[in-house]
Amino acid sequence: MKRFRGTGVAIVTPFKNDSSIDFAALGRVVNHVISGGVNYIVVLGTTGESVTLSKDEKKAVLAYVVEAVDNRVPIMAGFGGNNTQDVINGIKHANLCGVDAILSVSPYYNKPSQRGLVQHFKEIATCSPIPVFLYNVPGRTSSNISAETCLELAHECENIIGIKEASSDMAQVMRILKGKPENFLVVSGDDMVTIPFIAAGGSGVISVLANAFPGPCSELVNHALKSNFKSAREIHYKFLDIIELLFVEGNPSGVKAMMNIMNICPNNLRLPLVPVSRPVYTKIQKAIEEVNRS
Q1: At CA 111, angle to CA 187 and CA 51, rounded to 5?
Q2: CA distance linking residue 230 with residue 264, whole number of Å
Q3: Is residue 175 part of a domain?
């Protein structure tokens, strides 16, 4: 479980101008975040635009990342959706060699009941040959995994080892932290609340910002986990404006603009997502300049 304590980064999927996957840029992203000190990588998540990748592209991206990481850090791979059997089939037919855990988002659009969520995740946990992380992001899915549902799964499913919590409901987070098994990990899915999340007992963050700034993100989390909140706050407030700009026109539009400015990857997305507007791009440029000067 300790492999997923600290700073995870939900990496982007770079695209060329023709919208094909830019594997050379993906390799740069992997090396950039590992050299910055992140503890693990999350591939095929929301930030990776996984919903616009074909099945063959997902297999290719996962295989490339596993090879590029080369056992330097653990890997968590996204396998989620609103069709339980399709998720299970995807896991069964995937090459999970080199993958340490699965991240499975709460079903979207269907709006299942809590009983439906329990059964959905139990089926996934039963079929998965590697540990499973739940992913709760009701702002995107309209399907909240309640604290009670999370705790039921945590206590009854040995193969479910943690949750990425992005509900922005700290009361819910604290109910999970209070009632969870000792080894169950509760990880923030929101860069903005990493410090209060860890202060309440959380295990770290799966970060978007760490795509661009892996070093400061890792340093912040390390300080917070050691209860050195003064130093953690200094880093957080230094990046406060940049964190807000990440999401002002959607994710990963904001972080891809940042990484383009930093010459890490192209500023290309797949429809229906589009690059940030020119005014926001200019704000991001100025924010990065200010951070680099400070």
Answers
A1: 65
A2: 31
A3: yes
Listed in sequence order, the DSSP H helices in the chain are 23-35, 55-69, 84-92, 114-127, 138-141, 147-156, 170-179, 194-199, 214-225, 229-238, 240-247, 253-261, 278-293
At 165 the three-state DSSP class reads strand
Model confidence at 2, pLDDT cuts 50, 70, 90, reads confident
Residue 131's domain spans which residues?
Answer: 2-228
Domains: count for the chain: 1
SS3 195: helix
Q: Can you count the helices (H) and strands (E) in the chain?
A: 13, 8
**218 vs 210: CA distance, rounded Å:** 8
SS3 content of the chain, % helix, strand, coil (to 5): 50, 15, 35
94-135 pLDDT, tens digit per residue, is 999 999 999 999 999 999 999 999 999 999 999 999 999 999
- What are the pLDDT digits (tens) for 134-169? 999 999 999 999 999 999 999 999 999 999 999 999
Handedness of CA 63, 65, 70, 72 (dihedral sign): negative
Residues with a catalytic annotation lie at 135, 164
Could you give the CA distance from residue 287 to residue 213 in angstroms, rounded to a whole number? 13
**Residue 117 DSSP SS3:** helix
Please indicate, yes or no, if residue 288 is contained in any of the structural domains: no
In a domain, 266, yes or no: no
User: Domain holding 35: CATH number?
Assistant: 3.20.20.70
Give the separation between CA 251 and CA 207, rounded to whole angstroms: 12
For 54-100, write each residue's pLDDT tens digit: 999 999 999 999 999 999 999 999 999 999 999 999 999 999 999 99
Distance from C-alpha of 8 to C-alpha of 40, rounded to nearest angstrom: 5
